[in-house]
Specification:
Elements: H1 15-18, H2 23-30, H3 44-58, E1 64-66, H4 74-86, E2 99-103, H5 107-125, E3 134-138, E4 147-151
């Protein structure tokens, strides 16, 4: 049985992997200032779940393509402008500190999706909420650009969860 309660033996993800990589944040860091998109914005409970999946279910590296994203990140600012025009703005997984894109493809992508679903299933069996409410593959195009989005936002009007989308 998979232990979903005790902490993983270590943290598998670095601050560098989880911080925002937009131009605003990178400029602030280069000036020695605190960037708005630092790794400390990631929710600790979400990170604990990721570490457990990495250690106890998937059992292999999970390189992060994108972690936290501040409001200046090009993808987030584009989503926000589009949503505000439609009157539907709700912060997504990345700016809420509960979203990552794991760089993975092929059989490893299949194994990661299976591991996330198994981990969620153990939570359901223990009458606990599913920690991963979005498991969304992007498996087209260049192999280096493939990833699986893992999100942990809760259900909200305009943002139903659990949810699945593809890119």
């Amino acid at each position: 049985m998979i232990d979903i309660h005790t902490p993983a033996s270590r943290g598998y993800f670095t601050d560098v992997e989880m911080r925002c990589g937009c131009a605003v944040c990178n400029h602030a860091r280069s000036q020695g200032e605190r960037a708005p998109g630092c790794a400390s914005n990631m929710r600790l409970d979400f990170m604990a779940h990721l570490n457990r999946v990495r250690e106890r279910v998937y059992c292999r590296p999970m390189p992060i393509a994108s972690g936290f994203r501040c409001e200046h990140h090009p993808e987030e600012s584009f989503k926000r402008r589009r949503a505000e025009q439609a009157g539907t703005w709700i912060p997504g997984d990345h700016p809420s500190g509960v979203g990552v894109d794991v760089r993975v493809q092929g059989s490893d992508a299949h194994a990661l999706m299976r591991a996330l679903h198994v981990y969620n299933w153990f939570h359901i069996q223990n009458n606990l909420p599913q920690p991963f409410t979005a498991i969304c593959p992007h498996q087209r195009g260049r192999k280096q650009g493939r990833f699986i989005h893992i999100g942990g936002n809760t259900d909200a009007p305009g943002r139903p969860r659990p949810w699945l989308w593809t890119y």
